[in-house]
Amino acid sequence: MPSGSGSERTNTKHPTLRFWLGSIHFAADAVLVAFVYYIVRDFLKDGNWKITPYLLNKAVANAAFLLIGLSMLLASLGRFRRIAPNRLVFKKYLGVVGFGLAALHALTSHLALRAKFPWPAWTRQNWETALLGFAAFALFAAMAAVSNRQATELMGGAAWRRFLSAAGYLGALLVIVHASWLKWPSWLNWVKTFDPWLPSLSLPMVLFGLAVLAARLAVRLSGTEK
User: Fold this and answer.
1) For residue 195, what are the domain limits?
2) Which residues contact 182 (CB under 8 A, 6 or more apart)?
3) Contact 159/117 with Cβ under 8 angstroms?
């Protein structure tokens, strides 16, 4: 007589499905939390409840960077302490789903939110930040493209890992500079006025990104990198 629930048997037969579903569920939760944060923050700013595609798109962008950053952070933490393989393997799926959110953010910005990001006028006026964003997106796209067994066998394990590491951390650095360039005046204003008392979510996200880079640097300095 078979034991266990149907979902448990499915997870046993198709473990990768569990990783995909878990990553997608986490991504949806991250988008929802960020969306609610932006709605509440805007209410504190002007006293009006606003539920707009623009705020949702900002939430998607923050969730994308959170997932990609967590993917890289898991890789760094795995060098310092033993992490169960069934948890460490999530780094691939978090990264790919995070890239999917980044692609959704980019498409939404330039196709559905032309009032906010008139194309190509916005790119000409903000070419520095646009270039940083495009470069980061290209790096993350390359990472997603080689996140499969065939690419690992073609490139060789060592070269494959070096490529993912270099592209990932350079992409993260570009995103940090991209967000800082766009949001620096807003952050300075918040530090001076604390109005509203909730900061732009981009600020804690950039601090998280710096923590991800710091963890990577700690791996290099510790000599635990293979």
Assistant:
1) 6-222
2) 126, 129, 202
3) no
